[in-house]
Each structure stands twice: as structure tokens, then as C-alpha cells.
Amino acid sequence: MRIEYDKDLTDLTTFKVPAKAAIYAEYDSEKDLLALTRTPEFIDNEFLHIGAGSNLLFISPFKGIVLHSAIKGIKTYRKDDDTVFVIAGAGEKWTDLVDFCLENDIAGLENMAGIPGEVGASAVQNVGAYGAEAADFIHSVECFDVETRKTVLLYSEQCRFGYRDSIFKNEAKGKLIVMRVSYRLRKGTEARNLTYRPLKEFADSLQRTPTIRELAEEVVRLRDSKLPDPSLIGSAGSFFKNPEVNEYFFQEEIRTRGIEMPVYPAGKEGFVKLSGAWLIDHSGLKGSSIGGAEVWPGQPLVIANTGGATGSQVAELADHVVKTVKLKYGIELEPEVNYIDTDIKVTVLGSGTSKGVPEIGCTCPTCMSTDPKDKRLRASVLMETHGLRILIDASPDLRQQALRLGLSRLDAILLTHQHYDHVGGIDDVRPFCIHRDLPIFANPQTAHDLRKRLDYCFREHPYPGVPRLDLHEVECRPFKINGLEVIPIEVMHGKLPIYGYRIGDFAYVTDAKTLDEKEKEKLLGLEVLILNCLRLNQPHFAHLILPEAIALIEELKPRRCYLTHTNHQLGRYAEVSKLLPPGVEFAYDGEVITIKHQPHIHIHHE
Q1: In the chain, where does the domain assigned CATH 3.30.465.10 lie?
Q2: With 80 as the cut, is the pLDDT of residue 599 above it?
Q3: What is the pTM of this model?
């Protein structure tokens, strides 16, 4: 086991953009990994596991601990005359595994020759190319569970493989570390997978079935003809996924525009797959560049670092590609690359209470104010971190809030409770369900209420076009969204238990009146707290008022606190802000709050 601090990771990624980690650790055995997970460096920090760095884009330094596997070794055993199992350590290069198979006349992986990365990533990413995917051959995956600190074995069907997807990118991200992968392959030298058109044409040119070596060589030649030379130009291979879209959306919104484009089966019911390369090419984006980042002319799914590009420049170019394709075709491209950014950006979508400010028909000074900070939609925030966009509460004003922000993608929704001013915008999430069922996380009571209130979304055969929701009931204990830890905070809204949420050094608590002491402990050490404050001095049975909110803030001691869920009785923003102590202010609609993560550094002794 080796631990380093302030580690330069630039040469450990295929993008070759500047990349750093506060802490870096490499291990070469399960014993090493077990010891590593007991160190303060691991326990006190968020961790990121990397392979060859082929699917990572560092936007900013990673302010936690980066882990890398050096578990090596390739073993084989025969099951019968035809079947051979190959087991490889996660730290082996994928290309070395393919070469091993070719040298030992083991067939199956030849279509995926030349893919950059390590063996562990083949299971995480479900890598694929030229008509084959790793999931076609993976028999089992040996993992280390960081919570139980025990080894677990997942068989292929338990890995929930999908297009460039697996359980390791979702529920198991940040929980299971891949140590070894077992592949069920075939003894022989004849190549059988010729479904990809250029490979069929290659076989036709030979006038015979190619050997696995010949096919692998042709695959590498095809890759080299389209992709930048990795020894000279940095990239992550395909930057974007080929989009899978709801079939109803495709027929109603794409076909009706008279647009003709390649369409393929998606492999899951109700969806079709489109060509990302076609969309980018026909949007006129080949060769587009920002700084040293360029959309590769030979393969527009690739964004290349042609020299001196930063992660931010690559991300800016990727965003330009996404917006351009969206504008022309109405389809949102999704990066295959993982953005590494531990900072948190919070946008206040609404800061008002259930009736908003101004209230309908009210002529009080607050409601008649012309100050934009006195115009308050119903309370909600958008949180962005680790490449994810997470909405906390879907207010009845969601449509207006999303249009004002230009929001076109959501990865998940956290709901605090079932009151209408916090869930009334759920029906407006339809545009965010084009590519997948939208994950929603809520306590059991809120989930039960949603199934009744929005029963048309949960029927066995829902009406086409309704929101497609993936509803998760969560108890008051930590859970993860794509590896991002979320800590529910139970607060009392009068007599109703509801949730606030903590993510890293940020927490959002609304509609609170009281908190149990053990829940308060979850809110200690915050950089930013957003907390409800209904009005100035008139008590309320279910909401904090200003003196109560200030007292709680003094107890919790966040570095910064923003007050939200306020009504018109609070008064005008400019005047009432003068009453607040240092470090506390009223949130306002459209406000953007940035939280810089700080790592916990310990000096490790072997």
C-alpha cells in the first residue's frame, strides 16, 4: 500500500488535462485494500476509484482520496471442451487481457481489441465496441464492500448491465470496489461475431471467416483510422453515449418534424437508440474547438485534447455540443465520461412559502415591492456536483423556474415531504424523462402519497407521455445517488416528520419547527446551510420564525446560512436583511451559492 499527498494525476488519465488529488493511494491485494479502508485518509474523505483514467474528466482537483488498483494476474480454467473461464485482476490493462486471449486461442473479446482502460473498468462501464459488450462475456465480478469490509461475488445478472452502464455506476458506486473479473469465453480461433457492418465487409473481402487474431487486427485498424493516436493526443475515446430515447417522444417530437435519422433497437422496452455521431455530424460540429479541446473530425463522438486543454475547456466544448444538438434535434446528449468536481453549486429556484410572494390580491408593501429579491416563487433548489444535477423539491412553479434557468437535464429529485408546494411540479418533469425513468427519492409517507396523487404515472400501462418516474423510498439513513452520499435529516414540521438533506458540506432544511438532538449532530461542520424562516416575530406552529432560526443557526454554527421559505409578512428584503447577524442572509430567487470542498489530510505511517 502506498499513500501520496497532493498527487499530480495528469499522466494517470487518458485525457492528459491537468488533474490533481489531495490524497492518492494504490493497493495490490485485498489485504492492502482492507488496511487502506481503515486509515483516517479513507474514513474522513470522499473516495474516487480510478483505473487507467480513460473515462474521467477533471474539472477541478479532487479534494478527497483517489484509489487505484494494482491487483494483477490472469488465470484460466476449462469447464468443458468449448468453454474456458478467464479471471483477471482489476489492475490489468484491458489490451493485455485481449492479447492474452489471442495468444492462447481464447475467443470472445477480439471485437473489443484496442479499447483503453483496465479490466476493472470493463465491468463498471460495460465497455463495448464493434458489436460486442463486456456484459456479453462477464460471468462474475469479485468486489470489496467498503461498508462491511468483506469480499462479495456478483454474478452477471446481479450486475444490472446496460448500455455503458452497470450497478457499479449506480447503487454500488462508492460501495463496491471491483477486484477481479471472470469472463466466460470460448476455446477456438474462429471469429464469430461479424454483425458490425465493417467487420462483415472485412470477412467478405477475405472470402472466409477471419481468425480472432485477424479480426482483432482489423478492429484496431478501424479504431486507429477514426480515433486520435493516444500516445500523441489525449481523449477519453467516445465522450458521448449514443442516446436512448423514449419511443413515444421519438415518434411524436422527432418524426413529426420530418427528420430522418438512423434508428436502432435500444434493448429495453419503450426506447430506441440513436446515433450520437450522426447527430453531432449533422449539427455541423466536426472540428469545433475551444482552446485545446476539439470535436475529433474522424469520429465526432470523441472530444480530443489537441494540446494544452483544461478540463473546463473540454467541459465547455461538450456543453456547446449538447446545446447545439438539443437546439437542432431536441435530443439531449449524455456524456459517457465522468466529470470530477467535488465543489457544489446551488441555485435557488424559489425562496417563498406555499403562496409565494407577492400573494395573489395582496397590497402590502412587500407584495407591492419592485425589488426583484421580493419576488419569491415556491421553495426549491437545484444542486450540481460530481456532474450530477439534483433538484430538491418540485414546486408548483417548477415549469417557470426551469424555463428561467434554461434547465434541460435532471439526474434525480429529492423530496422533503408531500405538501403540494413541494411536489406540485412533478407532472412538469416530463421533459426530463425522455432518456430514462427519472429517479425520485422520498420518505415512505411521501412516496405513498405520490402514488395516490399521481396514480396515472404508476399504472402497469401508463398513458403515453406521462412522467416516467423511478420512485425510491428512503429511510432516515445515508443512501447514494450514483455514488454521491445523501444524508437525510428528520425534522418536525409541526407534528409531521419530514426530511432535510445533507450532501457534503451543504444542507437544505425547509418547513422545520423542531429537530431532535441526534439530527442536529448531522448538521454540524457545514459550509452552507439553507434553512426555513417563515416570518419575523409572529409564532407559527409548524415553521421556524426569525428568532428561532437565528437560535438554531447559532447552535449549529455553519460558516454561511441562507434563509428561505419566507412569506410576505417577513417584510422587504432590503430592510429585513439589516436584522441579520454576520454570515446569515436571506436567499433570493436565482441566487447561486458555491461550496468549495475541503479535504481532511492525515499523515499516514506504514
Answers
A1: 74-226
A2: no
A3: 0.87
